[in-house]
Amino acid sequence: MARTRRYKNFERNFVTRIYEGVGGFFSIIGRGLARLFHIFDEKITVMLVPHSNGRAFSIQTNVFAMILGFIMLAGITGSFVYFNIRAIGSELENRRLRAENRETLASLDELRDENDNLLKSARRFQASLSTTLSLLGISDGGANMEGVTGNGDLSSLFSRQDLAAGSLQETQDVKQLTAYLDSAVQPVEEIGKMLENQSSLFTDIPNVWPVKNGIGHISMAFGQQVHPITKQWYIHKGTDFSTWRSGDPVVATANGQIVSVGNDNTFGLSIIIKHKYGIYTRYAHLNTIRVRKGDDVTQGQVIGTIGNTGITTGPHLHYEVHIGSSVVDPAKYINIK
Question: Nearest-CA neighbor of 38 among 13, 12, 14, 64?
Fold first, then answer.
């Protein structure tokens, strides 16, 4: 019983101390708030005295109202400054956007001009391509810029009404050009295939300048000429090429086979090449020969050098083209460029 009584006394004392502590805490807070309210409630008199002999004005308030007034004044001033800064920033941004808009409009005008130039070039290309295709007997496959509308991905972004009104004419022009170029791909590919199939023809027919790298000049053309030695009129059966010196390389003007390598009083050192389609070429007055009879040569291969052998008045290459038993003008089979 004594132990139970001690526990109860301890419990009562503990609870009493907790109540006293909580009560003391709230009492301190209450006294602090009362003191704070007392401070805020202290009266303050603000007197306004004019410099002239006028009547003085006095305003009576308390600390709380004064602090609240300062807070409101600071808030109003801060808001004014903030919104003014925002307004200035917005104005600067508007100026920047207006400048960018002017630059964009200028770029758009330039783009329109370039678009017009592009369309003009495309129409010239169309005319040239159509002429080429007609000469080659190839159908243009409907590659026509007029009336081409196309079905590009951009078409879904613009209404027919806008296009009809012409507000997006540049876009329509670009789509039209794109559609035309797409339709022109097939004819151009056909030309490429034709050239590829006929590439051997260009190497089997004499058509290149017979002096390597295209140097030299024509010193005497094919046809009726005055003989430089006899001074009599005669038919010059070839074309003479001169570089004013000996030793410059002479090349085969087409693929073929060496059928003759000789040296006589008229042509001096000379070579005859047999080509396809009954064509022969002769290279005379050479200084040196770099092939032998029976050799197969390719177009552009060096076969000798310019010389001064045989009946000549100076170093040059005498070049002839024969088709069957006829001698023809080599100029018709030479790329003069």
Answer: 64
| SS3 sequence of 88-112 | HHHHHHHHHHHHHHHHHHHHHHHHH
Contact 43, 66 (CB under 8 A): no
Calpha distance 317→258 (Å, rounded):
17
Q: Where do the H-state alpha helices sit in 41-62?
A: none
Count the alpha carbons within 13 Å of 296 in the hemisphere toward its beta carbon: 3
Distance of CA 49 to the CA centre of its chain: 80
CA neighbor of 141 nearest in space, from 172, 180, 175 = 180
Task: State the Cα angle at 213 between 329 and 284, rounded to 5°.
Answer: 45
Window from 15-24, 50-59, 303-312 with minimum mean pLDDT? 50-59
Cβ neighbours for 215, distance < 8 A, ≥ 6 positions apart:
243, 248
Q: Are 316 and 286 in contact (CB under 8 A)?
A: no
Q: Which band of pLDDT confidence, cut at 50, 70 and 90, is reported for residue 102?
A: confident
Report the C-alpha gap between 305 and 283 in whole angstroms: 10
0.70 exceeded by the pTM? no
The upper half-sphere exposure of residue 277, i.e. CA atoms within 13 Å in the direction of its Cβ, equals: 13
